[in-house]
Amino acid sequence: METDMRTETPLFYWTVAVLLALWGFVGCYACTMQFLHGPEAMGPATTYDRQLYASLPLWYNYCYAVAVGAAMLGAIGLLLRQGWAGIAFLVSLIAALAQFGYLFVATDIIATKGPGAVLPFPIFIIAVAFFSMWFAVFAYRHNWMD
Fold first, then answer.
1. SS3 call for 3
2. How far apart are CA 120 and CA 51, in angstroms?
3. pLDDT per residue of the chain (146 residues) written in tens, 0 to 9
4. Residue of 60, 61, 91, 62 whose CA lies nearest to 74
5. Is 6 helix (H, G, I), strand (E, B) or coil?
6. Residue 44 burial class via C-beta count within 10 angstroms: exposed 0-12, middle 13-18, buried 19 and up
C-alpha cells in the first residue's frame, strides 16, 4: 500500500507557480521573437544593436533557448508538483548566467550603452532564476511536491 507523503499545498505555492509559468511563457515568447526578428525583436534596433547581435556566437542563442525553456519546464514541474522542478530551474539559472556572463564580459555593451541601460533587467532575470530554484527546493522540503 502506497501512501501520499505530500502535505496540503498552500495558496501562495500555487500563486508563485502560476506567476513563474507566466514568466516562463513570456521568456519563451521573447526568445522566439528574437530568433525570428533578431535585434529588431525589442523594437527599432540601432546599428550597434545589429552589429552586436550579428557578432554573437551561435551557442548564445541556444543558451537563451535553454534558459527560458528550462524555466518554463520548471514552472510546469511546479504546477504538476514534481520534485524535478528544482533541477530544471538550476539548468535555467546556469544557462542564463552563461548567456549574460558572455554578453557582459566578451562584448563592449556596458561601455557602449552604460550599466544603467543594460544591467537592471538581466539582474532581475538572474534574481528570478535564483528565486525559482530556491522556491522549488523549499516546496520540495515542505512536502508540497513529489
1. coil
2. 22
3. 445 566 789 999 999 999 999 999 999 999 999 999 988 887 888 999 999 999 999 999 999 999 999 999 999 999 999 999 999 999 999 999 999 999 999 999 999 999 999 999 999 999 999 999 999 999 999 999 98
4. 91
5. coil
6. exposed
